[in-house]
Write the structure tokens for this entry.
Amino acid sequence: MVTMPTGLRVAVVSDDGVSQDIVRGLEARRIEVTTWMRGRQPGRFHDLRCVSGASCPVVHVVVICPRTLLGGRDIAEQCHRAGVPSVIAWGRHRWGVLGPINDHHPGCQHCADMALAARDPDWVTVARTTTGDSHDPAVTAWLVNQIEATAGALRDGLDVYSVKSVHVRTNAGERSLVVPAQPGCRCWPPQEASCNTLMRSAA
């Protein structure tokens, strides 16, 4: 049976190809995927023109797949400045994490990091040394399901902003941790109108 295209468009940004399993899983769902791999060369800097420029279709969400658990924050910040929704997806054997949606609504990945650090002073130290590896099929399928649901909700204009959450999958099961918006974080909207032209175009 031929699966019809979903109409969802996702850009996947990864460090050294760590997102290959996720990309294959998304493409198997007939989701249009644009990929961008970052290298390790010191001093390299990229911007989001490769996922938001005229040569690339407008995407519903940018999925950031860093090698380390605390990676990808620079790309999330670029997405925030460009008005492009993003989410950080990280996984290793038997363990997957999908961060909150980063957009112009309060409650972002930085808020999640601050909240987790406040709950556990050792969390930052542990997270800095925790790297991802090849996902097992269960983790890959879980991340793909979460990403597809997130992209679909953003495309359809559903209320994904009322509660921001970090989603975690481990051997013990799945859970969602509510992310409180941290006062003074850059995710609080400015006084001027949002410049999220990409989302308006995708609507």
